[in-house]
Design goal:
The chain is elongated. Strands 2-1-3-4 form a four-stranded parallel sheet, with helices on both faces. Helix 7 crosses helix 8. About 50% of the residues lie in helices and about 15% in strands. It is of the alpha/beta class. Strand 13 and strand 14 form a beta hairpin. The chain has four domains: about 130 residues, Rossmann fold; about 100 residues, Putative Large Serine Recombinase, Chain B, Domain 2 (Hect, E3 ligase catalytic domain fold, Alpha-Beta Complex); about 120 residues, no CATH class; about 80 residues.
């Protein structure tokens, strides 16, 4: 058989792993290989242009070419260099085996000599081994570089949503980070499923960096990523990052607890009643459900546990009671204005002076750092397995992060107390505004807890500062208050001081439900 009758396949490949090597483009490879075929008077049966890496087996066009060669469609291969054919031991072995069995009788390369002799096959195996060594060494160098980066507190990969890459580091994306924080805060309330969260925040403009909409799985992955707390999970190990956190570790932990509790999504196809899952029966403790009869919605006990004598209640009646209960914990606007002014005055004179406590926290952090270092030494001395080291280190790093946040919260404690008081007072001002029934329900959840329906009457326990306001007995909504009440408030300042102290103690003692 002479060169004129020999049939060849042309195989070209250029993949992303070759960027650092000055490998010719596909067009250049094809041009030179066709010129070689013309010069050698070779018949080209087909041309394969592969754009997939050769680091791992499974290239579809390469496999197709091998199958067609075994069927006898061609007996030779034209390629730029042996490393175009294989950079892994499986594909390299396949080529050499087909040469051994005579399926491949000849291979020609513009940059490499090959002859199907023992010496030629030996040189070919060396070329394949060199190609594999290059890939392995490149992978190790990349892996080593990433490991060094993450140990230095630098995220070694593409920045996650909410951050952007800048000068080899990740920095907060000021346009997206607020939405990321709101996503965590919304889910931590327990009022949203992942699907509802997706619909809400996709509507607000939260998208992938490619511009595509986020799926439910993207939100689940986002909510499980500790990078937003300043920690980095890399290869199963937690590292402290030097990037700015978007959320606190406490909020992140709350979200994980909520996610673990949500074993089932909200049922589909249920009518969106206003008070679904809101109340429990005061007699038997079962949930109150809603059903429609003759054009009106009625609330009733599900009676799933024990016999119950509670009667139906019209939804309109419950709504009016909620509106009245909200009015009872709303203060007059002039009182609120005075309280805000006094709060700001006291805030400007408050001085934080608890150095001993701060030093104690710093000492605990230093101790944890020492323990982490000892763990590393124990692992290096083979006293601990990699899994034992990672588990122990992850727990210590998480504890250290909580202590750092505790220290930061302590240093800001006074300001937070005053800021929360002002936030509460301004929120109270909004009670006078007109609202929809849905907004009233959302507001009621902030005012109280343990919502019960008994004898067609709404019962609940005011929470936090709302309880303090309730205990003061200065109810009455935004109607005009008597001069006696006003003098008592502005003179003794008892109610105001109790409201501000609640941010430190957060009393939650039960209060009998107010009836209407």
């Amino acid at each position: 058989m002479n060169n004129q009758t020999k049939k060849f396949f042309i195989y070209t490949r250029k993949s992303t792993d070759d960027k650092d090597r000055q490998v010719r483009s596909i067009a250049d490879q094809l041009s030179e290989l066709k010129e070689l075929a013309l010069k050698e008077q070779l018949e080209v049966v087909d041309v394969f242009v592969e754009k997939q890496t050769a680091k791992i087996p499974g290239r579809p066009l390469f496999n197709e070419m091998m199958e067609r060669m075994e069927k006898g469609e061609a007996s030779g291969i034209l390629a730029w260099h042996p490393d175009r054919l294989a950079r892994n031991s499986v594909d390299g072995g396949k080529v050499i085996y087909l040469v051994d069995t005579g399926v491949i009788s000849e291979m020609k390369f513009p940059t490499f000599w090959f002859d199907p002799t023992p010496q030629g096959k030996f040189m070919l195996s060396i070329a394949f081994s060199q190609s594999k060594y290059y890939v392995d060494n490149l992978g190790e160098n990349i892996k080593r570089g990433k490991n060094n980066k993450v140990k230095d507190g630098i995220w070694p990969q593409m920045s996650p949503l909410g951050y952007r890459n800048e000068d080899g580091r990740i920095v907060v994306d000021v346009d997206i980070a607020p939405l990321i924080k709101k996503t965590f805060e919304a889910y931590s309330t327990g009022n949203f499923t992942l699907r509802e969260l997706r619909n809400k925040f996709n509507g607000l403009g939260l998208k992938r960096k490619s511009g595509k909409e986020l799926a439910v799985s993207n939100y689940q992955k986002l909510l499980k990523n500790p990078i937003y707390t300043g920690l980095m999970l890399y290869n199963g190990e937690i590292f402290e990052g030097k990037h700015e956190p978007i959320i606190s570790k406490k909020l992140f932990d709350t979200v994980q607890e909520v996610m673990s509790r949500k074993s089932k999504p909200h049922s589909k196809g249920l009518k969106p009643f206003l008070y679904r899952g809101f109340f429990r029966c005061g007699e038997c403790g079962c949930f109150i459900t809603t059903e429609t009869q003759k054009g009106h919605n009625y609330l009733r006990c599900t009676k799933r546990k024990n016999p119950c004598e509670q009667k139906y209640a019209r939804e309109e009646l419950i709504t009016s009671q909620i509106q009245e209960e909200i009015k009872k914990v709303s203060l007059p606007l002039d009182w609120l204005s005075w309280m805000i002014a006094e709060n700001r005055k006291d805030q400007s004179s408050e001085i934080q002076s608890s150095t001993l406590f701060a030093d104690s926290i710093k000492a605990e952090i230093s101790l944890l750092e020492t323990k982490i270092e000892k763990l590393m030494n124990a692992y290096l001395e083979s006293a601990l397995s990699l899994e034992e080291y990672r588990d122990a280190k992850n727990a210590l790093v998480a504890s250290k992060q909580l202590l750092k946040e505790k220290l930061l919260a302590f240093e800001q404690k006074a300001n937070n107390r005053f800021e929360l008081t002002e936030k509460f007072l301004k929120y109270n001002m909004e009670l006078a505004n007109d609202r929809t029934n849905e907004e009233n329900t959302h507001l009621f959840k902030k005012v109280g807890s343990n919502f019960i329906l008994e004898a067609r009457t709404v019962l609940f326990e005011p929470r936090g500062a709302w309880k303090t306001l309730s205990d003061s007995e200065f109810f009455g909504g935004n109607a005009e208050q008597t001069a006696l009440r006003a003098d008592h408030i502005f003179g003794s300042e008892t109610l105001f001081e109790n409201l501000r102290k609640v941010w430190d103690s957060n009393p939650r003692a039960p209060l009998k439900g107010a009836t209407v």
